[in-house]
Design a protein that fits this description.
single chain, about 140 residues, alpha+beta, three-stranded antiparallel β-sheet, 2 helices, transmembrane, membrane, DUF4307 domain-containing protein
């Protein structure tokens, strides 16, 4: 008996070897075009989402008493949007000791610093002595046209 196996004998016994699939030039071009399209859609989505989202900047705070604090902040939004901002007061351990949601609608043009930014002061009642007061987040409630 021969110990040398012929290719036909192996193919008959075990089947043909698996073919490796290769991506041709047209396949790579298709993948490149699809990736470019997905990237462009993502960039447009990010840019438009950020331009419509309200932004805020904490300007200052004041601890009025053991049960009251104020927070000052600037809000930048589109003129027709109604935006709600959550403001919180924190104690030394960073626990929330006061919370208030403030809704800001249309602001008169003369009160806007750059056509979109307005300043606000919020008074908060606190459960005990606060050490700071800041804006937690802002979101669009309604878009007026």
């Amino acid at each position: 008996m021969s110990t040398e196996a012929t290719p036909d004998l192996l193919r008959n016994r075990y089947g043909a070897p698996a073919r490796t699939r290769r991506i041709g030039p047209r396949g790579w071009l298709g993948i490149l075009l699809a990736a470019t399209l997905v990237s462009a859609v993502f960039i447009v989505w990010v840019v438009t989402a950020q331009s419509s989202a309200p932004t805020f900047k904490d300007v200052g705070f004041q601890i009025v008493s053991e049960t009251q604090a104020t927070a000052d902040f600037d809000l930048t939004k589109r003129p027709g949007d109604v935006v709600t901002c959550a403001v919180r007061a924190l104690n030394e351990e960073y626990a929330v000791v006061g919370w208030k949601e403030v809704t800001v609608g249309a602001v008169p043009e003369e009160l806007l610093s750059d056509g979109r930014t307005s300043s606000h002061r919020v008074a908060l009642r606190t459960t005990n002595l606060a050490t700071t007061a800041v804006v937690d987040s802002c979101w669009v409630e309604k878009v007026e046209e």
